[in-house]
Q: What sequence folds into this?
């Protein structure tokens, strides 16, 4: 590789990568980051006080350019994949350096083959607590002391790079101060002075702590951050009380931090929860973080609020007020149960570690600063497996045998026979899935990006002399999502009732109806759709669902990952739910081929019509505790329900009940006008929307069209 | 025994404390001109028809044993005089036809409302009997309330106060909180707009205070009828007089029940102007400015 050309086009990560190409793994990764940070300039923004304000110099970002993660190099680092080829910048580079167009094409081809062992999506939640309380210097010293093997040489290269980067941030801040005037000048001076004393040594002020956290968040590629209120609350309170920190300045910094979460597509930020001493950690900073979310009114950062028996009501009240704003933030977590489940499932995990749990990405469970979690290692599509059980392991959409031969549906004499075939398909699919995922992880143990920032900022990697990818973290597990649970439950129940128990549809007819995607079988489809469904507090339906999910999830929990941890079930399907339905043929709940599945642990869209208490009762009958990887429960509530304190209190009572009875988490969507309009356009998909009508609550679609219009109009005034 | 129920609504948060399930009972002797639940007035099952949902498939015409349904020039006509609410036409695939009023046993009601008992426990909620006028089916109410108390469930009854409660002390013992309507301070206008006697309401207020039964005073405010200084002063006076009133709920008039009149093929006696938020706020301010003893005043 022509290093001079790489230098000319500013591909510094690639420069280091090729520089170390012939060195033992993973040296080229250390050199890649070293050269990147040694040479990358730093931009100090005119409006944002936090520095650095981007992970790469003037990178493409989510707000301005619509890219998923920050990017400015062909060989680019991002929080999901580490170093990998990013084609979004190719045309930009070619425009910038037209004489190198052919070289750039060749570079992409060559790099793609050499970085093929990129990770599955691994989120992270780095050790902000040690950085704030002890600083980076002890980690640096440990790396220096721990020897000269290839991993440590790699880490040393990386550290050399970020030392230069850190100094450059200081220099650029100093330069910016010279050309700035008035209040902003003094603010930048403050940031410069505090930054100069942050990161390497323990933080002695809130601003130092926040700048240090921001710095490692940038190094990590802007993913997730643990409990900022636990890490910085004591500094925040003492600085405010002593008058050292002015509240409006602190708020400006938090606003900047939130803005960067949105801009760089950062993920989760956690609040609240127990401290190692068993007390709740909520403090003044918890409140300020909630208030910042209310001010910002955006989906990022995805604020996760851990609530336990000791959480004071004033914090819960503020969380409910924030929710009422309508951005669906914060998500609420049952702190007591999470800690209990982690300790039950990981016998070696002490309480002090369990209380440090946090979330990566949307909501995947991990331990802040201690875990490597294959976040969404993959998914198991239960609705798809149902199709295999219906057709003797044959995928009727792909027209190929993709599952076991478990018998033709027409030949099953009883529902139990069919149910047994379904379980066999689930077992087989789980085994095949785990083999595939484990093979992927195996490659990453010794190949590809070792994730150097995470190796430094995740406990025990240095002690174990293993990288983050190589299994060095204290805790290692993989999270697997289960798709289409409620489609499976509703279909199973419909098959049981309509075909086996009541003979309303013959087995042969059902098979034909599904093959024809119900074309010509409209009556049969209506019969299937009229059967009871999950989400309506009907015990027989819910328990059937609980049984099949327990079977599925226990199967997965039997397996270990190559890093030694568990495969942990989860049930999480946000905006992706439409795609997950694409490979699934028509199902016996009346769903058309290729259409959407249900959202996470919730009911099939529009079929839960008995209100939120009924939905909660149904959800609680499922073995949620086995899916502690994250059992996402989305609930949609209209804005007006939360607009008054009375409504907020009663809604909290509903959530509190859910937590007391074994619910792990709840995510609340507060409805807006667009959703109500969509409900009018496609009523079947939105039957569960509740609106306030005068003195009572009513289902939106129970109202006449004129009334619906009036509610839509009224909503605009909220 | 059985009673006639129009609806059982779960997660009701405005019909008393905490999370509640509200049972709407059919039958009411009053005729409030602003009633938004007209289907609960008649004490018998009734056919309701939603014209907007009908696609003229004529299935109802075929199944009706009394020949109530007919179609002329693409207009679906229903002769309610012939209808005995048998419900056969509710097979309507468009759900345009339904019978308001299910005959349920108290056990059936109880089974439904106890589904949310854990929510009542954690929220301080319970079950509210509403209507219609729940005391119109007082024996049925008694059976439900007795079973609810057996299960330790908090009970509310939302009543117009048109029945003399001193005649049913045993029933009152089973009720934790009375949501009592207070519709007009002027006895003549009360009679004119609702058919209700203020004398009975006053007697009920005295009796409820005597037995120390907590009350939430529910005041529907209808522009042009009772949005007057005199009526608000009347409310203040009642609250000052009866120490067992813990809360005043202002229920601004709305037209959300209009479509039900059409579905019942009835005409609302009249419609009123819907108050603006500013007007509602001014009512609340007036009540709050009266320096009532520390009770909760809110709108629903």
A:
């Amino acid at each position: 590789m022509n290093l001079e050309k790489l230098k000319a086009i500013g591909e510094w990560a690639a420069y280091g990568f090729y520089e170390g190409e012939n060195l033992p793994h993973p040296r080229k990764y250390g050199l890649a980051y070293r050269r990147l940070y040694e040479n990358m300039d730093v931009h100090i923004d005119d409006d944002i006080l936090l520095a650095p304000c981007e992970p790469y110099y003037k990178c493409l970002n989510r707000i301005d350019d619509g890219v998923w993660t920050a990017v400015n190099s062909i060989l680019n680092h991002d929080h999901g994949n580490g170093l990998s080829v990013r084609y979004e910048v190719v045309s930009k580079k070619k425009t910038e350096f037209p004489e190198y167009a052919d070289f750039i094409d060749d570079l992409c081809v060559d790099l793609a083959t050499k970085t093929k062992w990129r990770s599955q999506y691994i989120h992270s939640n780095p050790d902000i607590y040690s950085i704030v309380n002890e600083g980076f210097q002890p980690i640096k010293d440990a790396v220096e002391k721990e020897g000269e093997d290839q991993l440590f040489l790699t880490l040393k290269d990386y550290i050399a790079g970020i030392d230069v980067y850190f100094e450059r941030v200081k220099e650029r801040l100093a330069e910016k101060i010279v050309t700035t005037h008035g209040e902003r000048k003094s603010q930048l001076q403050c940031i410069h002075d505090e930054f100069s004393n942050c990161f390497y040594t323990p933080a002695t002020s809130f601003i130092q702590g926040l700048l240090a956290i921001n710095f490692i968040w940038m190094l990590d590629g802007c993913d997730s951050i643990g409990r900022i209120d636990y890490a910085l609350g004591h500094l925040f309170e003492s600085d405010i009380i002593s008058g050292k920190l002015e509240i409006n300045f602190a708020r400006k910094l938090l606003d900047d931090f939130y803005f960067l979460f949105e801009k760089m597509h950062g993920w989760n930020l956690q609040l609240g929860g127990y401290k190692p001493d068993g007390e709740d950690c909520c403090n003044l900073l918890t409140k300020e973080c909630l208030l910042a979310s209310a001010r910002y009114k955006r989906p990022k950062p995805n604020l996760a609020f851990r609530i336990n028996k000791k959480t004071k009501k004033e914090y819960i009240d503020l969380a409910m007020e924030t929710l009422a704003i309508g951005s669906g933030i914060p998500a609420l977590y049952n702190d007591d149960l999470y800690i209990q489940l982690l300790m039950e499932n990981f016998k070696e995990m002490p309480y002090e570690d369990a209380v440090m749990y946090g979330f990566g990405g949307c909501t995947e469970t991990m331990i802040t600063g201690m875990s490597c979690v294959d976040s969404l290692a993959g998914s198991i599509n239960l609705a798809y497996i149902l199709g295999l059980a219906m057709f003797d392991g044959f995928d009727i959409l792909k027209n190929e045998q993709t599952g076991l031969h478990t018998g033709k549906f027409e030949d099953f004499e009883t529902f139990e026979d069919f149910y047994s075939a379904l379980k066999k398909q689930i077992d087989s699919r789980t085994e095949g899935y785990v083999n595939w995922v484990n093979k992927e992880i195996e490659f990453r143990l010794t190949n590809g990006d070792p994730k150097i920032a995470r190796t430094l900022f995740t406990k025990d990697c240095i002690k174990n002399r293993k990288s983050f990818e190589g299994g060095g973290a204290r805790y290692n597990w993989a999270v697997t999502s289960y798709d289409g649970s409620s489609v499976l439950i509703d279909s199973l129940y419909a098959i049981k009732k309509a075909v086996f128990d009541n003979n309303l549809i013959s087995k042969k007819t059902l098979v034909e109806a599904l093959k024809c995607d119900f074309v010509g079988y409209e009556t049969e489809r209506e019969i299937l759709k009229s059967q009871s469904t999950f989400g309506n507090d009907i015990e027989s339906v819910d328990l059937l669902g609980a049984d099949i999910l327990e079977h599925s999830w226990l199967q997965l929990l039997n397996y270990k990952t190559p890093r030694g941890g568990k495969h942990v079930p989860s049930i999480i399907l946000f905006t992706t739910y439409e795609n997950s339905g694409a490979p699934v043929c028509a199902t016996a709940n009346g769903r058309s081929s290729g259409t959407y599945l249900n959202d996470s642990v919730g009911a099939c869209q529009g079929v839960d019509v008995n209100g939120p208490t009924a939905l909660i009762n149904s959800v609680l009958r499922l073995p949620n505790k086995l899916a502690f990887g994250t059992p996402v429960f989305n609930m949609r509530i209209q804005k007006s329900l939360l607009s008054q304190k009375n409504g907020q209190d009663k809604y909290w009572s509903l959530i509190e009940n859910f937590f007391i009875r074994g619910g792990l988490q709840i995510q609340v969507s507060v409805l807006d006008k667009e959703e109500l309009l969509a409900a009018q356009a496609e009523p079947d998909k939105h039957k569960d929307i509740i609106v306030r009508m005068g003195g009572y609550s009513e289902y939106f679609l129970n109202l006449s069209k004129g009334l619906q219009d009036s509610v839509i109009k009224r909503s605009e005034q909220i | 025994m059985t009673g006639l129920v129009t609806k059982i609504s779960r997660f009701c948060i405005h019909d008393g404390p905490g999370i509640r399930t509200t049972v709407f009972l059919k039958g009411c002797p009053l005729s409030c001109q602003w009633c938004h639940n007209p289907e609960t007035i008649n004490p018998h099952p009734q056919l309701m028809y939603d014209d907007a949902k009908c696609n003229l498939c004529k299935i109802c015409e075929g199944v009706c044993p009394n020949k109530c349904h007919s179609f002329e020039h693409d207009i679906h006509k229903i002769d309610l005089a012939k209808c005995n609410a048998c419900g056969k036409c509710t097979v309507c695939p468009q759900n345009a036809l339904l019978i308001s009023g299910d005959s349920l046993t108290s056990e059936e009601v109880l089974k439904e409302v106890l589904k949310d008992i854990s929510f009542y426990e954690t929220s301080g909620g319970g079950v509210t009997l509403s209507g219609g006028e729940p005391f119109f089916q007082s024996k049925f109410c008694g059976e439900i309330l007795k079973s609810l108390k057996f299960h330790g469930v908090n009970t509310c009854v939302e009543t117009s106060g048109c029945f003399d409660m001193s005649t049913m002390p045993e029933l009152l013992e089973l009720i934790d909180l009375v949501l009592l309507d207070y519709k007009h301070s002027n006895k003549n206008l009360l009679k004119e707009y609702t058919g209700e006697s203020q004398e009975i309401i006053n007697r009920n207020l005295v009796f409820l205070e005597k037995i120390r039964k907590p009350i939430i005073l529910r005041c529907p405010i209808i522009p042009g009828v009772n949005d007057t200084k005199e009526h608000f002063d009347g409310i203040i006076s009642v609250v000052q007089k009866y120490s067992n009133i813990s809360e005043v709920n202002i229920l601004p008039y709305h037209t959300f029940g209009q479509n039900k009149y059409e579905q019942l093929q009835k005409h609302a006696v009249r419609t009123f102007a819907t108050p603006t938020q500013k007007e509602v706020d001014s009512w609340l301010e007036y009540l709050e400015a009266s320096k009532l003893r520390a009770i909760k005043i809110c709108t629903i």
Summary: The longest strand of chain A covers residues 371-381. Residues 692-697 of chain A have pLDDT under 50 and may be disordered. Residues 1-78+82-117+136-187 of chain A form one domain.
